[in-house]
Fold this protein.
Amino acid sequence: MDGHRRLESTDRPPAVGVLFNYHSAVVIANTLKKLSPKMRIELVSSGLDLSENDKRKLDSLEILFTQPNLVQSLKLHLLPNLKWMHCLIAGVDLIVETLKSEKSISSFPVTRNASYFDLQMAEYVIGIILSRERRIADVHENQRNQIWDQEVFRKFRPLTDISIGICGFGSIGKEIARVAKTFGIKVYALVRNLPTEAEQSPTVDEYKSIGELGDLLSSSEYLVSILPCTPSTNGFYDGDVLSMCRRKKTVFINIGRGNAVSESTVIRALNEGWIGHAVLDVFDKEPLPAESPLWSHPGVTITPHISGTHMIPERFVKVALDNYNRFLRGESLLNIVDVNKGY
Amino acid sequence: MIRCVQTEIIKRLFGGKSVNRSTTLKMLSVDPSSSVGASMRKEEGTRPLVGILATFVGSPLEREIADAVQKTRPDIRFEVFVRGKPTISEKEMEDLKSCEILIADPNIILENNLVNNLPNLKWMHCLWAGVDRFTRSFSPSGPYPSYLLTRNGDFFCIQMAEYVFGYIIDKERHITEMKKLKEQSLWKRLPYRTLSELTLGIVGFGDIGKEIARVAKAFQMNVWALVRSFPKDGEQGPHVDEYRLSSDLPELLAASDYVVSILPSVPSTDGFFDGDMLSHCSPKLTTFMNIGRGNVVKDETIIAALDRGWIGGAVLDVFSVEPLPDDSPLWTHPKVIVTPHIAGLCISGSKIAGDFVQNYDRFVKGETLPYTVDWDKGY
């Protein structure tokens, strides 16, 4: 269901609306103009109070580059001529809800900026692992106290001795696997469908299906969840699931979405000794409210949803530009979101 | 220098009885006209006398190595086991002197004046990568020991890379700072850069340097390497974007967001970064990392470079004097990270065993051994 049309030679290329946080929107628009001088770009206000002029702009837009949370506040019926929406971020759960609820008018393809965030999220994960395994916090503590103590650091485990379980094996998960393999970490990947031998990636040691989640949990020193937010991932780790981490006192890292595990589950898993530590970058509510018990629990590391938020402008718009050219040529688009699957 | 705390001395019990030199020492006769390491003809029923001189506290590393070797090669027998600290007894000295092959910490050999006192030794295999104290103890023109010395060249590579990237990512992604923010229940997003936007300059491009370059490329970093001579066409590694010679160090420093020194300690690297050299780092406020040896830069140079705004930070694992003296200003400078020579400290008995066995087979065949120390070069 591509729904786009070939560009007639007499047509002006369709204008591209950019609806994004203001400062970034300007950077994005300027970058697009620089890389594609003929592109017509309309900056769209994210405010709820739209002027008549804004409404006119929206009315004629066929292409929109945006971020999901801003689409919520903008009724899709203001975009009757939309032929293609591109999300400039990777996580599309908020748009999917909106699209499903406005099904009658959302018959255009939605694509997302998958692949752009992969490496910086893999960097984050490896950084967390290295920081723990090399006990960087303890090193700093010793320095503060001017203690030279080698013995306490002699027995670190090289990364070649540990395993990582990756739950959610899309482009981000694959990149994490690649970087993990660079350090010789053993990689388990949780997948919905086990790949054929030809499809298997050389960076994965063992693929596990959902039914084998227990195996994966009990074999991994580190568990990274990049599960998207969909009805089927709600509470994915709740209940007693994390008790299967007991064997290795797995360190649980969540960089996907907060719906996958509740706060109380994390705290219980820590207190019961199922998991050794929790590193959480995503939460049900963000910013994490001050009253959340996660702030004061010593077994929790909190990062404010920053595993993948850095914009390198020219790279950031690459998928958008590729798709724009494909759109004009009537070719199929990259990274199409399956609204039913939710990602 | 690795500082060790030892409390016991272990002797191997051979067949339940205590070691009796006259029955258990098996000496291999060696053709006196053959050059060192050229060949050790295995006469029937005899084997070279192999010993281990190790220094680890807690885990009996010497046992680990011997067991690991014996698993696959029962023909290689270890007759002598000596713990090098706090002292070596007279009896143990005699045992060591009887060895023809020795796996050892060369610093302990040095400390016990055994360097030129191992008359039967044909080959010493060192547990570590760095042998500088040993090699710098000789006068430049010799005389050098008559035995071969090989060092543990490649095992530490990935560990050193783990250290380097651990500190780089910790700094760039504010991992330590975020811990502090959590303590204050503060949700605050700190802007960051990705490694793919940064340049890493590697000074000292042996196997450790190459491994660091490999990992840097996995993060899509831009990689510069300082080399003694440009690689020939076709020999350029896939992980280096720019090679430079020592005379181009200023250019490399100016280009690098991070510089890692893995230079060995030899006379030509003394003070390599001293004087005004680090002023070339100012364009990018380079972070200077040293995991090689402390002779390349004085403490005062680092402090001055930081205070003058030449470098943006320092991550130092090695120092001119170790342990770092209490009064060194490096301990307390806010932009200096002091780590107690731990970048490549993890040791695996089975890995050493594997390397040793490979070398052993080459040795008895008279082949050259990898990582043989060149006495002239000093490493």
In short: Residues 1-45 of chain B have pLDDT under 50 and may be disordered. DSSP finds eleven helices and twelve strands in chain B. Residues 160 and 326 of chain B are 26 Å apart (CA to CA).
